[in-house]
Amino acid sequence: MTRRTRHLVPYLFIAPAMVGLGLFKLYPIMEGLRLSFYDVRPIARTQVFIGLANFIELVQDPVIVKAALNTVLFNAIVTPLQVILALGLAVLVNRQGRAVRVFRSVFFMPAVISLVVASIIWKLLYAPDNGVLNGVLIAVGLPAQTFLTSQSQAMPSLIGMVVWKGVGYWMVILLAGLKDIPESVQEAAIVDGASPGRRFFAVTLPLLSPTLLFVVVADTVINFLLFVPVYVMTQGGPSNATSLLMFEVYRNAFVYTRFGYAAAVSTALLFVIAIAVSLQMRFLRVEFEY
Amino acid sequence: MRRISLIAAALLFLMGLTPAIPFGGAKSAWAATELQYLSVARGEPRRQAILAAIVDFEKANPGVKVVLSEIPFDQYFQKAAIALSSGSGIDVFDVDSPLVASYGHQNALLTLDKYYARDNVQDFTKVERDIATYQGKMISAPMGSTSVGLFVNVDLFKAAGLKVPGTDPKERLTWDQVVDLARKVQVDKSGNKIADTWGFAIQQYDRPYMTLPLIESNGASAIAPDGTTVDGYLNSAAAIEAARWYGDTFNKFKISPREQVPNLFYTGKLAMYLAPSYEANTLKSQYPNVNWIVAPHPYFKKAVTPTGAWHVGVFAGTKQPDLAVALLKAYTDPEAAKRNYKIMNYMPVRESTFKAFPETFDVMPNKLFYWEIVNTAVPRPRTPAYREYEDLLRQAFANIRQGADAAQEMKAATEKINAQIRRYK
User: Fold this and answer.
1) What are the angstrom distances between the C-alpha of B288 and each of A154, B152, B247, B281, B283?
2) What is the ipTM of this complex?
3) What is the pLDDT of residues A11-27, one digit of tens each?
4) How far is B196 from chain A (nearest CA, A)?
5) Which residue of A has its CA nearest to B192?
6) Does the model's pTM come out above 0.90?
C-alpha cells in the first residue's frame, strides 16, 4: 500500500456512515428545500415550479402566523421551565439513600411513558365535564375549569402536560452532569466557608454549564418539533389556540396534501430553530473544562 | 497486510451500500404476477372478507398473487397518497366514499364503466351509485355503507317516567323534542351541575359526517350543486342557526358532555346517542345488558341522514387494469357482497344483499336503517377538496362546541374552504 492509498483508508471506513447521513438526513433536507419552491400535487403526480409563492403565502396565512407565534411562546415558556425544574430536581436527588432512589424513579417515570399514551391520559384528566381534575376541583369547593376547551386555558394546559412529561428526562441528564463534578471542588468551597447557595451558583452551576448547554439546546430543538400532544389532545384548537408549526406542517402535508406548502413551513421552522440554537450557543458557550 | 486492510475496508464499504439480496425463494416470487391491494386494517373477523375475495380471485387467476397491505385507519390516507404519488405498491385500494371525487379529480381512479353490466350497476343503491360517479363516470365500486339513528336507553327513559320514542319514521322526533326529553331524562345526583347520566350525545361529534345533516335538515346545503363554492351555503342563516343549536347542546342546554367520553352509552350513563348503524352490532355482541332501541334520526325541517363508508377503486396507473378490476369485482360483485355482509356486518350497498337477508332487514333496527338509506340519506359533498372541507368544517364545529360564536365560525370556515376549493380549479 502506498502512502497515498493509505490516506484513503479512514475515509473508506467512515464512508458508509457518511452515505447513510447523506441519504437519510441531508437528502431529505435538500429535497424539502427544493419542494418548498413547487406546487406539488402528489396524487395527480404533478410538480409545478412556483418560485417564492409558498413563502409569500405562509407569511400572509393567519393560521401559520398564529402557529408561529404559538410556537415561539410555547418554547419561551416550556424550555426554561423544564430546564429550571429539571435542575432543581437533579440537585435534590443528587444524594444517597433509598428514599432518594424512589424519588428519582418517580420523577423519571413520565419520561418512559409513550408520548401518545401520556397525551391520551392527560386529555381525559383535562375533560371539562367528566375529567379527574375538575372532579378534584369541585370536591374541594373550587369552580370547574375549561382546560383544553377554552382559548385562554388550552395553551397553559398543554404546557403543563409537556413540562410534566419532559422534566424527568432532563433531570437524569443533569444528574449525570452533577455526578461528574469532582467532590474535591465542592469540598474546597466548603473549607473556604461558602454557603450552600453560594456553592451552587459559584461552583456547581459553572461546572455544570457544558451539560446545561446540551440540555438547553436539545430541549429547544425537541420542543420546536413537538407534534404528538397537539395532535392527540387539541388538533391545534380551539380556534388555533394550540396550533404549533409542526402540527401545521403535518396538516398541510397529510390532510391537505400540499407537500410544497408544508415543505415551505418546514423550511421556515428549520431556520427559526437554527437561529434559536445559534443564539443559545453564543450566549451559553463555555470556554473551560474541568 | 496494508493491502488486506484496504480490501477489507472496500468490502465493508460495498456491504454498507448494497441492499440485502435474497438468495432462497426469490425466483418463485419474481415469477408470479403480483397485484398490490392497499386496504384499511379492519381487524378480525372483518378482514376475512377481503381474504376470502383474494382466495376466489387467485383461484380464478392462477399465477397471479395478491399482496395485501393493511394500514391502520389513522395512517391510511397518508399511505394511500404516498403510494398513489409514487405509483408503486398500489393497484387496488380502499377509497373512503367522500374522497371518490377528490381521487377522480386527480385522475387517480380507473374508469370502471366498461367492466360493469347495467344490472350490476343498478343493483347498487342509488345513493351509493351517485357517490361512485364522478363527471358521469363510475370510478369506484361501493363495498359497505352506514346509516345513523338515535340509540335510546329504554331503562333510563322508564326510570324518568318518560315515553320511549317510537322507531317508525313517522314518529321521528324534532331536535327541539330531543332537547326537551334530554333535559328530563338527565340526572345530576351529586348536584354539582355536571350530569351523572347525560341526556344526549353525538358520536364523532365534530365530523361533518354527523354535523352536515343538522344544517341540511334545517334547509341549508353543504355546498353549491356544482361543487365550486360553499359561500351562501355553509354561511347561510339556516346553516348558522343549526350550528348554533349544535353548540347550545353543549353550552346552553348542557345536555351533552363537551369532550367525547368513551363508552357512555354502553355503560348506561347516556339516554340518547346519535350514532352509526354499526353501533347496533357492538351493543348486541358486547353489551347485552343495555336495553336499547333505535329511533329515527331527528330533524329540524326535513329528515336528512348521513350515509357512506367504503368503496374500492383501481389505481389509474396500474399496469394490469383487467386483473385489478377482476380483483375489485371478486370483492364487490353481488355474491361477494352477500358474503361481505355476513362477515363484516356493514350496512349493504346492494339491493340484492338487502333482499337476501329478510330476517335482518325486515326487523328493527336494520329495517329503519335500510329505510333511511333509501329515503333520507344524503352523501357528503362531492368536491375534490373534500379532505380540506372536512378538516376545516370539523375545526369550526369543534370551536362552536367549545363555546365560539357559530356565525363567526361558519363564516370563517366558508372563506377557508373556498380558498382550498379554488386550488383545484
Assistant:
1) 39, 14, 33, 10, 6
2) 0.75
3) 999 999 999 999 999 99
4) 9
5) A138
6) no
